[in-house]
Amino acid sequence: MPLLSLLILVVVIVALIDIITRGEWQVKHLPKIAWVLLVVFLPLIGSILWFTLGREWEGGVRLPRREPRSSPRSDAPPMRQYPVDTRSTEEQIADLDREIEAWERRRELEARPPSDESGATGPKA
Q1: pLDDT tens track for 34-87
Q2: Do 32 and 24 contact (CB within 8 A), yes or no?
Q3: 74 falls within a domain
Q4: For residue 116, is it within any domain?
Q5: CB-based burial of residue 122 (10 Å sphere; 0-12 exposed, 13-18 middle, 19+ buried)?
Q6: Region Disordered: start and end of each range (predicted)?
Q7: Domain containing 36: what range?
Q8: H or E stretch covering 4
Q9: Cβ partners under 8 Å of residue 121, min gap 6
Protein backbone atom coordinates (compact mmCIF):
# COMPACT_ATOMS: atom_id res chain seq x y z
CA MET A 1 0.00 0.00 0.00
CA PRO A 2 2.75 2.56 0.78
CA LEU A 3 4.18 1.94 -2.69
CA LEU A 4 0.85 2.84 -4.30
CA SER A 5 0.59 6.03 -2.23
CA LEU A 6 4.14 6.99 -3.19
CA LEU A 7 3.35 6.34 -6.86
CA ILE A 8 0.23 8.56 -6.68
CA LEU A 9 2.24 11.30 -4.97
CA VAL A 10 4.88 11.18 -7.71
CA VAL A 11 2.23 11.31 -10.43
CA VAL A 12 0.55 14.31 -8.75
CA ILE A 13 3.86 16.18 -8.38
CA VAL A 14 4.80 15.49 -12.00
CA ALA A 15 1.35 16.63 -13.14
CA LEU A 16 1.55 19.86 -11.12
CA ILE A 17 5.02 20.66 -12.45
CA ASP A 18 3.86 19.91 -15.99
CA ILE A 19 0.81 22.17 -15.63
CA ILE A 20 2.79 25.05 -14.17
CA THR A 21 5.61 24.92 -16.73
CA ARG A 22 3.35 24.67 -19.78
CA GLY A 23 2.44 27.74 -21.79
CA GLU A 24 -1.17 28.88 -21.69
CA TRP A 25 -1.66 27.87 -25.33
CA GLN A 26 -0.54 24.30 -24.55
CA VAL A 27 -3.35 23.78 -22.02
CA LYS A 28 -6.64 22.44 -23.36
CA HIS A 29 -10.24 22.68 -22.14
CA LEU A 30 -9.64 24.57 -18.84
CA PRO A 31 -7.41 27.39 -17.60
CA LYS A 32 -4.18 26.37 -15.90
CA ILE A 33 -5.42 27.35 -12.44
CA ALA A 34 -8.46 25.07 -12.82
CA TRP A 35 -6.18 22.15 -13.73
CA VAL A 36 -3.98 22.86 -10.70
CA LEU A 37 -7.00 22.90 -8.39
CA LEU A 38 -8.37 19.72 -9.97
CA VAL A 39 -5.08 17.89 -9.44
CA VAL A 40 -4.75 19.18 -5.86
CA PHE A 41 -8.28 18.32 -4.75
CA LEU A 42 -8.71 15.10 -6.76
CA PRO A 43 -5.11 13.86 -7.03
CA LEU A 44 -5.45 10.59 -8.93
CA ILE A 45 -8.43 11.52 -11.11
CA GLY A 46 -7.12 15.05 -11.74
CA SER A 47 -3.68 13.76 -12.78
CA ILE A 48 -5.17 11.17 -15.11
CA LEU A 49 -7.48 13.78 -16.67
CA TRP A 50 -4.58 16.21 -17.07
CA PHE A 51 -2.38 13.73 -18.93
CA THR A 52 -5.23 12.44 -21.11
CA LEU A 53 -7.33 15.56 -21.82
CA GLY A 54 -5.68 18.74 -20.63
CA ARG A 55 -2.15 18.55 -21.96
CA GLU A 56 -1.10 19.45 -25.49
CA TRP A 57 1.31 16.76 -26.67
CA GLU A 58 4.30 17.71 -28.82
CA GLY A 59 3.11 15.91 -31.96
CA GLY A 60 -0.19 17.77 -32.07
CA VAL A 61 -0.75 20.90 -34.11
CA ARG A 62 -2.49 23.66 -32.23
CA LEU A 63 -2.68 27.37 -32.78
CA PRO A 64 -2.22 29.71 -29.85
CA ARG A 65 -5.41 30.87 -28.15
CA ARG A 66 -4.37 34.47 -28.25
CA GLU A 67 -1.45 36.58 -29.35
CA PRO A 68 -0.02 39.60 -27.66
CA ARG A 69 -1.21 42.72 -29.42
CA SER A 70 2.06 44.59 -28.96
CA SER A 71 4.18 42.37 -31.20
CA PRO A 72 2.97 41.58 -34.73
CA ARG A 73 3.53 38.09 -36.08
CA SER A 74 6.62 37.89 -38.20
CA ASP A 75 5.29 34.96 -40.25
CA ALA A 76 2.01 36.69 -41.13
CA PRO A 77 1.58 37.75 -44.76
CA PRO A 78 1.65 41.49 -45.34
CA MET A 79 -1.71 43.19 -45.27
CA ARG A 80 -3.16 44.03 -48.66
CA GLN A 81 -3.20 47.74 -49.38
CA TYR A 82 -6.28 49.00 -51.20
CA PRO A 83 -6.22 52.25 -53.17
CA VAL A 84 -7.84 55.21 -51.48
CA ASP A 85 -10.23 57.28 -53.60
CA THR A 86 -9.46 60.94 -52.97
CA ARG A 87 -12.22 62.32 -55.22
CA SER A 88 -15.12 64.19 -53.72
CA THR A 89 -18.59 62.66 -53.75
CA GLU A 90 -19.70 64.99 -56.55
CA GLU A 91 -16.72 63.95 -58.68
CA GLN A 92 -17.48 60.28 -58.10
CA ILE A 93 -21.14 60.76 -59.08
CA ALA A 94 -20.13 62.67 -62.22
CA ASP A 95 -17.74 59.86 -63.20
CA LEU A 96 -20.48 57.29 -62.65
CA ASP A 97 -22.90 59.30 -64.79
CA ARG A 98 -20.32 59.39 -67.62
CA GLU A 99 -19.81 55.62 -67.34
CA ILE A 100 -23.58 55.03 -67.47
CA GLU A 101 -23.94 57.23 -70.55
CA ALA A 102 -21.08 55.44 -72.31
CA TRP A 103 -22.59 52.05 -71.42
CA GLU A 104 -26.03 53.12 -72.77
CA ARG A 105 -24.48 54.41 -76.02
CA ARG A 106 -22.63 51.12 -76.45
CA ARG A 107 -25.87 49.16 -75.91
CA GLU A 108 -27.68 51.33 -78.50
CA LEU A 109 -24.92 50.77 -81.05
CA GLU A 110 -25.00 47.02 -80.48
CA ALA A 111 -28.80 46.96 -80.81
CA ARG A 112 -28.81 48.67 -84.24
CA PRO A 113 -29.07 46.40 -87.29
CA PRO A 114 -25.94 46.24 -89.43
CA SER A 115 -25.91 48.60 -92.42
CA ASP A 116 -24.35 48.13 -95.85
CA GLU A 117 -21.70 50.45 -97.31
CA SER A 118 -24.22 52.76 -99.01
CA GLY A 119 -25.71 53.70 -95.68
CA ALA A 120 -29.06 52.03 -96.33
CA THR A 121 -30.34 49.64 -93.79
CA GLY A 122 -32.36 46.53 -94.30
CA PRO A 123 -32.04 43.42 -96.43
CA LYS A 124 -30.19 43.47 -99.79
CA ALA A 125 -32.20 43.02 -102.94
Answers
A1: 999 999 999 889 999 988 888 777 655 454 555 555 555 566 667 777 788 888
A2: yes
A3: no
A4: no
A5: exposed
A6: 62-125
A7: 2-54
A8: helix 2-21
A9: 113, 115
Eight-state DSSP code of residue 27 = B
Total domains, the chain: 1
Distance in angstroms (rounded) separating the CA atoms of residues 94 and 26 = 57
pTM of the predicted model as reported, rounded to 2 decimal places: 0.45
- Bridge partners of residue 115, in order along the sequence: 121
Q: Which own/partner pairs from 90-99 qualify as long-range (CB within 8 Å, at least 24 positions apart)?
A: none
Provide φ and ψ at 31, rounded to 5°. Answer: -65, 160
**Strand partners of residue 27:** 55
Q: In 29-106, which ranges are E strands? A: none
Q: Give residue 106's pLDDT band: very low, low, confident or very high (50, 70, 90).
A: very high
CA pseudo-torsion sign 43, 45, 47, 49: negative
pLDDT at 41: 93
67 occurs within a structural domain: no
Whole-Å CA distances, 67 to 25, 32, 33, 55, 78 = 10, 17, 20, 19, 17
